[in-house]
Design brief:
Layout: H1 4-25, H2 27-35, E1 38-42, E2 51-52, E3 58-59, H3 61-74, E4 80-84, H4 90-95, E5 101-107, H5 110-115, E6 118-127, E7 129-134, E8 148-153, H6 157-168, E9 173-178, H7 181-189, E10 195-199, H8 200-209, E11 216-218, E12 226-233, H9 237-256, H10 263-269, H11 273-278, H12 285-288, H13 295-302, H14 306-313
Parallel strand pairs: 1-4, 1-5, 8-9, 8-10
Antiparallel strand pairs: 2-3, 5-12, 6-12, 7-10, 7-11
C-alpha cells in the first residue's frame, strides 16, 4: 500500500503529458474543423493541375487532392480554399501555418524533408524534368544543347538538376533564371533562351497554351525522376495521416473498381472484405483518423478515384499515365492496405 501514492502521483503527472500529446497530434485537424475551411496551397497557373476556370472555380489534379481532404475532414469537397503560391513561397506558407496542406507539384527530397520542417505524406504524381525547344531550332535531343542558354525557374531543384546533368557530361550552358514561372515562360517565348527546362507536365501545359503548339517540341529525354508529393507541416502526425489516407483512398478506390458513379451502390451491396472495410461497414477505419465512417466514400463520391481525376485533368494534356498507372497495370501507384 505504501507504493499507492507515488504510483498515483506518477499517473497524475503523466496524464497531462499524454493529453497534451494527443491534442498536439490532432491540432491541425481541430483547427480545420473549427474554421470550416481547408486552406490548400497550389500552383497559381498550371493547366491540368491547378488553374481557375472562366467562372473563377479552381480545377485540376492537385486541386482534387485538396478537395479530397476537405471531403474527408469537413464532409464537403467544396469547403477547400485555394491559396496560389510561387515556388519561392510555397514552403514558407506551410511552415508558418498560412496553409493546412500543400499540393503544388513539389518534389519530395531529403533536404526539404529534414531542413524545412516539411512532412511529405504521399507521392501523387511521378514526373521527370525535360526540355522544350522551338521546332524551327532543329534541336532533336539534349545532346544538341551543348553551349545553349536555358530558361529556368530560380531557386528550384530544377536548377540543381540542370547543373548536375550538364556538369557530369562536361556540357556548357548558361541560364536565364526568374523566380516567377510565368516570367520564365515569357522569356522562352520571346527567344531569350534556346530551351526551357521544367517538369514534363508543366512543359506540356505551357506548350498547349502557346498560340501555335506545333511550333514547340518537348525533347524525348527526361533528366530526372521527380516524385511530386503532397505535404503538411512536420510535427502533427494525426493531420498528416488524414491527408495521407485521403489520397490513398482515391488510389484504393480505383483498385477496387469504385468510382464517383457507383461507390454508393457498390459499397451498399458488396461482400468483398476490402470494400466493406473501405466503406466503414466491417471496421471503423475513420475512428483511427478522428473521422467518421463515411469519409472514404465521400471522397470518391464527391471527387472521384485516382484514375477519374487523372483522366479529367491530365489526360487532355496528351500525357499518358506511364508510371502513374496502378501497380497492377505496371505502374507505381499503390495504396498501402486499408485495414
Amino acid at each position: 500500500m505504501r507504493f499507492k501514492v507515488p504510483i498515483l502521483a506518477a499517473i497524475a503527472l503523466a496524464l497531462p503529458l499524454l493529453t497534451q500529446a494527443a491534442s498536439a497530434q490532432s491540432s491541425r485537424l481541430d483547427v480545420v474543423k473549427a474554421r470550416g475551411i481547408l486552406r490548400c496551397g497550389v500552383n497559381p497557373n498550371f493547366v491540368g493541375f491547378s488553374l481557375p476556370d472562366n467562372a473563377g472555380q479552381w480545377r485540376g489534379f492537385d486541386v482534387d487532392m485538396c478537395r479530397a481532404v476537405a471531403a474527408a475532414a469537413l464532409g464537403d469537397a467544396t469547403k477547400a480554399q485555394f491559396i496560389p503560391l510561387s515556388a519561392k513561397d510555397r514552403f514558407t506558407a506551410l511552415q508558418t501555418g498560412e496553409i493546412d496542406m500543400l499540393a503544388r507539384n513539389a518534389s519530395w527530397t531529403l533536404s526539404r524533408n529534414t531542413k524545412l520542417g516539411i512532412n511529405f505524406v504521399a507521392t501523387n504524381f511521378y514526373d521527370g524534368q525535360a526540355f522544350m525547344v522551338k521546332a524551327a531550332s532543329n534541336i532533336k535531343s539534349v545532346a544538341d544543347l551543348n553551349g545553349a542558354s536555358i530558361c529556368v525557374i530560380a531557386g528550384t531543384d530544377t536548377e540543381r538538376n540542370l547543373a548536375d546533368y550538364f556538369g557530369s557530361r562536361k556540357m556548357r550552358f548558361s541560364t536565364v533564371a526568374f523566380e516567377n514561372a510565368d516570367n520564365v515562360t515569357e522569356a522562352y517565348l520571346a527567344g531569350r533562351c534556346d530551351a526551357f527546362i521544367n517538369d514534363g507536365t508543366q512543359l506540356a501545359a505551357v506548350r498547349m497554351r502557346t498560340p501555335d503548339p506545333k511550333a514547340h517540341v518537348v525533347l524525348p529525354e527526361s533528366i530526372s525522376m521527380e516524385p511530386l508529393a503532397i505535404s503538411v507541416r512536420a510535427g502533427d502526425d494525426g493531420w498528416a495521416n488524414v491527408v495521407r489516407w485521403s489520397f490513398f483512398s482515391m488510389v484504393a478506390a480505383e483498385e477496387l473498381g469504385l468510382d464517383s458513379k457507383n461507390v454508393r451502390a457498390k459499397t451498399a451491396t458488396s461482400t468483398n472484405p476490402n470494400i466493406t472495410r473501405f466503406a466503414g461497414k466491417s471496421e471503423d477505419l475513420g475512428a483511427m483518423l478522428s473521422l467518421d465512417r463515411d469519409w472514404a466514400i465521400r471522397i470518391v463520391e464527391q471527387v472521384g478515384n485516382y484514375g477519374e481525376s487523372y483522366d479529367r485533368n491530365i489526360k487532355p494534356l496528351g500525357i499518358e499515365r506511364g508510371l502513374n498507372r496502378l501497380w497492377s497495370n505496371a505502374g507505381l501507384m499503390v495504396s498501402p492496405p486499408m485495414r
